[in-house]
Specification:
The structure is a homodimer of 443-residue chains. With 443 residues, chain A is an alpha+beta fold. Helices cover 48% and strands 7% of the residues of chain A. In chain A, the strands form 2 sheets. The first copy, chain A, has a 4-stranded mixed sheet.
């Protein structure tokens, strides 16, 4: 019943009736391309290419930023892994995770060269809508239990998006999402390893295969939402279609594009620490101790208190705040899989985190209820403090168009090519998808 | 800690030191081949072949019973789907599910033509051991919550078996099982659809890919058991290695080979009903009402009270008991995906099921605690009743060697070929795996 209603709503969606939804989708694709191209020199991408090449297969899907084609399944795996590898991709507060890395990776993998780009944009908006509504209904229970929502909810949303792209009937949309739901997986205990981005690739792959296999004649139980909610969130399913299409969640509250390649739960703290560094010119020697204050559960994604590697550091508020406070760059090099220098790790002992339920979050805060306060006790006895409610990049404080373009340019390193890609995204309704491949990339 | 201990135990296993373990493994392979070959004329196998052929890829893995090769991933998907398609494959009471369909499907998919068969048999024994110990520790909670244990636990066990087969280090065995665990999925709400056997194929595929990808340089969090148990069974991990290798669970309690292609939870009831039919010569007209009595939760896998199709009928004690009571065949034709005749469905209204916690299970019962009592009130007022504690095929009442051979012969329909396969399984330590393919199968 509830699944049928959702599938009907998806089937009848016309999100591009809203110009803002189309605009948000375009921005989302530009950011997705930036984070994907940014991985070019990462050795993990070579491992994944070897996996794909060793399997072989009929080249029907697009690998973003590569000259290679691969099967649709492999393309989705590759695109999803790539888009989330640096933890630099967009976040949606309703999801408690990353929508575009899964949804766009699946959509690009199944995109046909001559496909009508408007349908592509619309499918992306619909996918984000499904994922945001699932996240809203199932979280925080689902996430706090140990699930990696990006993967667990993303696989269903991406499957729904692909089914919508292909104009499946409501029945087959439901069956596709059901087959995705029964493959929904991904544990947060993998955070800080390369399996976190692999989850995203696997989710995109499973979404594509769900759509392919239902399209080829497999049949699942179309009525899956009740059972899925019971097992994954121990709750009843609400009506997921209330006000469907009135506003789109890709617009309100909107996507959060990252400035830095680490977990978005650390973005408030990073901005607060950077402010303190810039304002007071702090160095390592000036700092006696640091206290970082969150609302309850506000730091639950930040699982590493004493990270051993830069990769683990992506989930360590201690590490990130220390870097920013002392003026070290929040660049990709700081978050690689190599060991953190012992002297830096020793300094992290000065940093503590607390949660405080008595502090009222700002009404403007996004994600709702979030804030971070960084308080430094200096060696000279001064106490310096900064609170952030809407970090740069979050929907309350978005990247400008020019900043988004800079992000893409930085990833590609070639202004003409960056311009070409941005233009292609804007003209997606009439362009072909092949433009997002790299003819000149030989690996 | 607990994962490390398990990985060490797996690494150091020498199960063929026990002759009975080797013998049980051989019987398990014969039964696996019988249930796989039995699917030959099933249309769903054609759909899966089309999926594999459409993807294409380097032919490195074996498709059992076909002349085709495919990628290892596809071979595992195909083999697992095939082995569980008719719900005719073996059951293990500790697992609350089907071990061989997942484990052997993965092992056959990665088997190399010149691989030493002893290692293959040993890996199978080790896989069943992992799955049985996981099942024992996590059930009934895990299963009753809605998980399809065959898939959710099978993927981890099969991954461990493949890692053992390839002589991975303890560290990489743990990482392989961890990557499998973070893909663990499969909801019981798909029971009665073709997605149930697809779960098994997907689990075998994900196991193979976990082993392949860890082998190619991906790294997971090797310490996964604590988190996995919390999320999937809400319990702490016990020591899974107590008395490891003293007896093997493939021997004690042992595998249950099925006589009929339906859920094993219905086997007691089917034997009881068949006894009543044979003893009293019952027909449709003789029966006023039927009561079927289980211990609490003994019928939880039998989710269909009023099945619409034979496929749903595999999970309907009402349907199965009615067939057996009235002398209709418990054959494959009765459990196909076509509609059940309306007159038959009308008769099912006479059948009710109850559970009774006051009835003591027999000490010999296997699975432990199980029984079924079928009580018929005849139209002439007589009350006829039969209780079964150990149905035919279960470890307490096993198929004889000759019955197992008949099962394979029935599946293959060619005595010489059946003999050849049985001989090949017995000489597996020196044979090559290619013999399990069908050179003469053109589809």
């Amino acid at each position: 019943m509830n699944t049928e209603k959702l599938a009907e709503a998806i089937y009848h969606s016309n999100p591009l009736d809203s110009e803002r939804a189309g605009q948000s989708a375009i921005e989302g694709i530009v950011d997705y391309l930036a984070v994907s191209y940014q991985t070019k020199s990462e050795k993990e991408m070579m491992t994944l290419k070897q996996i794909v090449l060793e399997q072989g297969g009929n080249p029907t899907g697009y690998l973003i930023g590569s000259h290679l084609h691969a099967t649709r399944s492999q393309a989705a795996l590759f695109n999803g892994f790539q888009a989330h590898l640096l933890d630099y991709d967009d976040v949606h507060s309703d999801v408690r995770g990353h929508p575009s890395a899964v949804i766009l990776s699946a959509l690009f993998a199944v995109g046909e060269p001559e496909m009508h780009g408007k349908r592509f944009l619309a499918a992306y908006v619909v996918g984000v809508e499904i994922m945001a509504r699932l996240g809203e209904a199932m979280n925080p229970t689902h996430y706090l239990k140990g699930w990696h929502s990006t993967a667990t909810l993303g696989v269903i949303a991406a499957a729904g998006a692909v089914a919508y792209l292909r104009k499946y009937s409501p029945r087959l949309i439901a069956e596709t999402m059901s087959l995705a739901a029964t493959q929904s997986a991904g544990l947060r205990l993998q955070f800080g390893t390369v399996i976190k981005p692999l989850h995203v690739g696997i989710a995109a792959k499973n979404a594509v295969e769900s759509a392919d296999w239902i399209g080829m004649g497999m049949h699942s139980n179309p009525d899956f939402l009740t059972g899925f909610f019971e097992v994954y969130a121990e709750t009843n399913v609400p009506d997921l279609t209330v006000n469907w299409g009135k506003t789109w969640r890709i617009v309100t509250p909107g996507l959060w594009f990252k400035q830095y390649p680490f977990c978005s739960a650390a973005a408030h703290g990073a901005d607060a620490a950077a402010f303190l560094h810039q304002t007071y010119g702090l160095t390592d020697q000036d700092i006696e101790s640091v206290r970082i204050c969150f609302p309850p559960d506000g730091d639950s994604a930040l699982i590493h208190h004493d990270p051993e590697t830069g990769e683990e550091g992506r989930f360590s508020i201690e590490y990130i705040v220390w870097l920013a406070l002392t003026g070290k760059p929040l660049s990709f090099a700081s978050f690689e899989s190599k060991p953190i220098p012992p002297s830096w790790r020793a300094s992290l002992q000065k940093v503590n985190r607390i949660t405080d339920a008595t502090i009222k979050p700002s009404k403007e805060a996004l994600p709702k209820g979030r804030f971070t306060i960084v308080t430094v006790t200096a060696t000279n006895g001064n106490v310096l403090s900064k609170r952030i409610d809407t970090p740069k990049g979050s929907p309350g404080n978005p990247l400008t168009k020019s900043q988004l373009k800079t992000k893409l340019l930085h990833a590609i390193g070639d202004e003409a090519r960056a311009e070409q890609l941005i233009e292609a995204v804007h003209s997606l309704p009439i362009s072909t998808l092949g433009v997002f491949q790299e003819a000149d990339c030989k690996s």
